[in-house]
Amino acid sequence: MISALELSQIINGTYIGEKDIKIDGVASLMRADEYKVSFLSNKKYTKYISSTKAGCIIVDELFDISLYKDKNFIVCKNAYLGFALALTYFYKTKLDGNFKSPKATIDGSAIVSENAYIGDFSYIAKNAKIGNSYIMPMVYVGENSIIGDNCIIYPNVTIRENVEIGNNVIIHSGSVIGSDGFGYVKDNGRHYKIPQIGKVIIEDDVEIGSNVSIDRATLDETIIRKGSKIDNLVQIAHNVEIGENSILVSQCGISGSTKIGNNVILAGQVGIAGHLTIADNTIVTAKSGVGTNIKKSGIYSGIPVYEHSKWLKSSAIIPRLPDIYRKIQELENRLKELEKND
User: Fold this and answer.
1) Which of 38, 51, 56, 228 is disulfide-compatible with 32, CB 3.0–4.6 A?
2) Where are the active-site residues found (predicted)?
């Protein structure tokens, strides 16, 4: 338990309120008690400020705290970031290192840090290298693969051979890193498998959700650049490159050899064809299909995609098309009648 003032310093905010408020955790406005800090980042929840029992509330600089003189506040530039920092402080995952389960299999040629955690029934293959990281139960790490420091690999993750993973990487359960790329050549009516001999590189500070597939390159590398975040159920094909600090939301599919720029957001169920380039700072909205290069940053929607502002106008017209068509038919019929009379 810490004081609200101490918490404000930890999350880079300014505390305004009673001096003796103590905080032991984080909760929503509706469920917080007097020892919890809560937050407001979405205006639609403002109605709960008056009734909340929270010891203090994280808000942003634009919020008018003078309307709630009986409440205690931590004012931040970004309330949502303050909330995230508070959660990190109170609930940071605490794992004990320096443990190698006797039920795990670690090849004699593998190099595993003394401070690493290797859980039950995990398998560490030949020449693998693992830093000060946490390998949970039933994880497979293939030959010659490298995992850096401060990584968390959750149960039932498969990391195939020749995969390189940097520092501070999180991979959630069920994901497969380095599966074969989907590559075939057709000959006499049959599909001949093209061996996939490349690798996957995951740079620092990447988080990969559950049941994600990242295919190894046919040659060279499939690369996820530092700081990128990948949601559950995403497919990344061979030789794809994801730029820095990009976000891929659930059920995206990226076809082979496509290059995604930095700070790109692909919303849910976006599909991108192969061998394309997507510009930095691009946003593609949900369920859109990208079939050509996006050379200019902006917001894009539709199948195929085009500028979001134009897509909104088109979408507004679509429900009216039957009426428009009917009116056109009426006008055509009237025109024919006029032509007959002439």
Assistant:
1) 38
2) 238 (proton acceptor)
Helix (H) or strand (E) holding 308: helix 308-317
- Do 65 and 111 fall within a single domain? no
Residue 90 C-beta-side C-alpha neighbours within 13 Å: 21
pLDDT in tens, 181-206: 999 999 999 999 999 999 999 999 99
238 given a catalytic annotation? yes
Annotated catalytic residue: which of 172, 191, 238, 308?
Answer: 238
Q: What is the CATH classification number for the domain harbouring 77?
A: 3.40.1390.10
Range of the domain at 37: 2-91
The tokens describing 267, both together, are 């919303």
My answer on whether 144 and 280 are in the same domain is yes
Closest CA to 240 of 219, 256, 262, 261: 256
Q: How many domains does the chain have?
A: 3
Burial 22-60 (b: 16+ CB within 10 A, else e): ebebbbebeebeeebbbbbbeeeeeebbeebebbbbbbb
CA 227 vs. chain centroid, Å, equals 10
Which residue from 120, 133, 232 is spatially nearest to 175, judged by alpha carbons?
Answer: 232
Q: Model confidence over 14-36: pLDDT tens digits?
A: 999 998 999 999 999 999 999 99
pTM: 0.90
